[in-house]
C-alpha cells in the first residue's frame, strides 16, 4: 500500500496579519486631536508636549497642531495651532 499524500492543501499555510507599526505622522505634518502619530511595540519614541501614550504604547495627539521631534529624534511633540480670533 503506497503512502503517497494527495495533492491537497499545504499543512502549515497560515500567516498572521501585518501589524502596520511605525510613524504615521512625520515632522512638519498637521495632526488633529486624537490622531495617532506613532504605532510602536515598546517605548522607542516617548511622548512630549501635547502627546500621550496609549495602552498599547501608541502615541496620539492631545490637540490640533504640527508634529515635531526632539531629543535625538526620540521625543514626539505637537506644536498647537494658534487660534485665529476674528477682529471686530
From TrEMBL:
<feature type="region of interest" description="Disordered">
    <location>
        <begin position="1"/>
        <end position="20"/>
    </location>
</feature>
<dbReference type="GO" id="GO:0022625">
    <property type="term" value="C:cytosolic large ribosomal subunit"/>
</dbReference>
<dbReference type="GO" id="GO:0003735">
    <property type="term" value="F:structural constituent of ribosome"/>
</dbReference>
<keyword id="KW-0687">Ribonucleoprotein</keyword>
<protein>
    <recommendedName>
        <fullName>Large ribosomal subunit protein bL27</fullName>
    </recommendedName>
</protein>
<dbReference type="Pfam" id="PF01016">
    <property type="entry name" value="Ribosomal_L27"/>
</dbReference>
<comment type="similarity">
    <text>Belongs to the bacterial ribosomal protein bL27 family.</text>
</comment>
<dbReference type="InterPro" id="IPR001684">
    <property type="entry name" value="Ribosomal_bL27"/>
</dbReference>
<dbReference type="GO" id="GO:0006412">
    <property type="term" value="P:translation"/>
</dbReference>
<keyword id="KW-0689">Ribosomal protein</keyword>
Amino acid at each position: 500500500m503506497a503512502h503517497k499524500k494527495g495533492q491537497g492543501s499545504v499543512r502549515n499555510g497560515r500567516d498572521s496579519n501585518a501589524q502596520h507599526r511605525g510613524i504615521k505622522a512625520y515632522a512638519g505634518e498637521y495632526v488633529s486631536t486624537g490622531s495617532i502619530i506613532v504605532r510602536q511595540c515598546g517605548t522607542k519614541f516617548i511622548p512630549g508636549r501635547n502627546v500621550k501614550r496609549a495602552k498599547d504604547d501608541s502615541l496620539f495627539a492631545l490637540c490640533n497642531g504640527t508634529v515635531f521631534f526632539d531629543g535625538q529624534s526620540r521625543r514626539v511633540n505637537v506644536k498647537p495651532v494658534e487660534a485665529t480670533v476674528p477682529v471686530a
